[in-house]
Amino acid sequence: MSKFTKYFSLFLILSLLISLFSPFTAHAASPSTNVTIHKITGDTARTATYDELTNTTPPAGDPISNISFTYWKVTEDQFNTMIANSGSYETAAQVSAYVGSAATGTTGNTAADGTVQVAGLAEGYYWFIENPSTAVATSAAVPFGLALPITNQAGTGYITDLHVYPKNTLEEVPTIDKDIATDNNKLSTFDIGQSFNWIIQPTTPKGIDEYANYTVTDTLNAVIDFDNTKQITATIGGTTLTAGTDFNATYDAGTRLVTVKFTSTGLKNIAAAGPDAQLNILVPTVINNQAVMGQKIPNTATLTYDNNHGLVGSATVADADIPAVQTGGKKFVKTDGTTNLSGAQFVVKKGDQYLIQDPATLVVTWGTRDAATVFTSDTSGNFEVKGLAFGDYQLEEIQAPTGYTIPTNPLTGFTVNENSYTLDSLQILNKKSILPNTGGMGTILFTVVGLMLMTLAIILYRRKKQA
Q1: pLDDT tens-digit profile of 371-402?
Q2: Domain contains 27
Q3: Using an 8 Å Cβ cutoff, are 267 and 282 in contact?
Q4: 296-336 per-position pLDDT tens digit
Q5: Domain for residue 332, yes or no?
Q6: Are residues 187 and 291 in the same domain?
Q7: Range of 309's domain?
Q8: Is the N-terminal amide bond of 149 cis, ω within 30° of 0?
Q9: In this structure, are 39 and 56 located in the same domain?
Q10: pLDDT at 466 (0 to 100)
């Protein structure tokens, strides 16, 4: 065999091999695709632009974190059916039942920027669903299908780094309200030292069980003290939540800050009660002796939250709904109508109970007459009672000033309200005592009678002697 024939034969064999393997070579040249899913807020679906598919100009929307996806590789016929009826293939159960196989894969959770990547998807048809999240209210462009690879805009190749943008609207953000002692009560009055509860009421939107943070804070006004004899409590729909398990509550006396932070266990229990169940946080407090009589003492609260899907924020009680408490008092003056009198003593009644008040702290309790606090008029005749809840009371005089008489009715009614402490002092009148004078009419009468008897005796004696 000549050299020419030998080389020509080798050339033919090589050409045959190239022709045999050229389909496989062409198939191997089809690129794999890296798919980056951008989870963003939005409520409309539309065909993506090439600038969006390449992330040159991404669509508007805030990123949503901690959302994952499951996907299947399907046949072309299955793909076309699912595209035409996407609403019937939204769940893993629906897709697996139709496709007849388990999922091809599941992504991780979207990061803080809302993205998660599926790398190296080979040529073919894919169907993606979004895994359920209770924080999601509505979805757009989900589920979605991909026929890979996708040709670039110029038609000269493929988009090897593909970007898609399924959208969600999330459940509404929580708000917060606050009342006093009872639901919807925005204004109340109390004695100084009387314990009462602020009722803090944050809303509990769907998806709260996925929240990374749900914390209520309340900075107490300087004239309100935390009641250390009681505990902060919380209920959901009337069911008591467990401190230390469902929530952790603290009070910092230095900053006067109440903090109630709910745990993941607590948030799950709250979610289980349903979005219509009312969450109540009860913070026990008392008014202290720094309160200005009659003045409203407002107190608000703040909720900070992180829905674990990129939405971090806070809410405070609306200005028009901030509740307030009050305490009041009354001023008095003891007088005879002309001169103010010192040394008169009084006790205060409410029904059949008598006021007992610590002179330093002004803390009020109620008890028997024997234990009642005695109020004494000073050198100017003045005295006052402070730190009482608004209402009607009676002042009972138990000792009159020297030289004066206790009235036959020693009770004087008075009212404590928003303005009572700043009004003119209520006058308590007394009359002077009137006593017989020594050597007065009583002595004169006896003297006159005695003289008359002596005169009569002398006359009778003389008549008898003359006879």
Answers
A1: 999 999 999 999 999 999 999 999 999 999 99
A2: no
A3: no
A4: 999 999 999 999 999 999 999 999 999 999 999 999 999 99
A5: yes
A6: yes
A7: 176-322
A8: yes
A9: yes
A10: 62
One domain for residues 317 and 181: yes
Query: Which of 118, 135, 170 lies at the terminal end of a domain, its last residue?
Result: 170
Q: Is the separation of the CB atoms in 271 and 134 below 8 Å? A: yes
Q: How many CB atoms sit inside 10 A of residue 190's CB?
A: 24
Cα 365 from chain centroid? 30
pLDDT exceeds 90 at position 44 = no
pLDDT bucket at 436, cuts 50 / 70 / 90: low
Domain membership of residue 189 (yes or no) is: yes
- Inform me whether the pLDDT recorded for 166 exceeds 50: yes
Q: Which residues, listed in sequence order, are joined to residue 158 by a DSSP beta bridge? A: 151
| Same domain for 153 and 37 | yes
Q: Is 347 left (phi over 0), alpha (psi -120 to 50) or beta?
A: beta
Examine residue 283 and state whether it is found in any structural domain, yes or no.
yes
CATH of the domain at 213: 2.60.40.740
**For 191, phi and psi rounded to 5 degrees?**
-70, 155
418/58 Cα distance (integer angstroms): 60
196-202 and 279-287 as β-strands: parallel, antiparallel, unpaired? antiparallel
Mean pLDDT lowest among 69-78, 175-184, 362-371, 447-456: 447-456
Strand partners, 325: 188, 297
Strand locations in 158-306 (E): 161-164, 167-170, 176-180, 187-189, 196-202, 213-219, 224-226, 233-236, 239-240, 247-252, 257-262, 279-287, 297-298, 302-306
CATH number of the domain that residue 137 is part of: 2.60.40.10
**109: exposed, middle or buried (C-beta count within 10 Å: 0-12, 13-18, 19+)?**
middle
- Number of independent structural domains in the chain: 3
Q: How many CA atoms, within 13 angstroms, populate the side-chain half-sphere of residue 58?
A: 21
Last residue within a domain, chosen from 271, 301, 322 = 322
**How far apart (Å, rounded) are the C-alpha atoms in residues 163 and 57?**
11
Bridging pattern class, strands 33-38 and 161-164: parallel
Residue 150 has pLDDT above 50, yes or no: yes
The DSSP result for 437-449, as a single string, is PTTSHHHHHHHHH
pLDDT band for 351, please (50, 70, 90 cuts).
very high
- Name the residue type at position 440: G
pTM of the model: 0.79
pLDDT at 439 over 70: no
Contact 383, 375 (CB under 8 A): yes
Coil vs helix vs strand at 118: strand
**H or E segment and range at residue 96:** helix 92-99
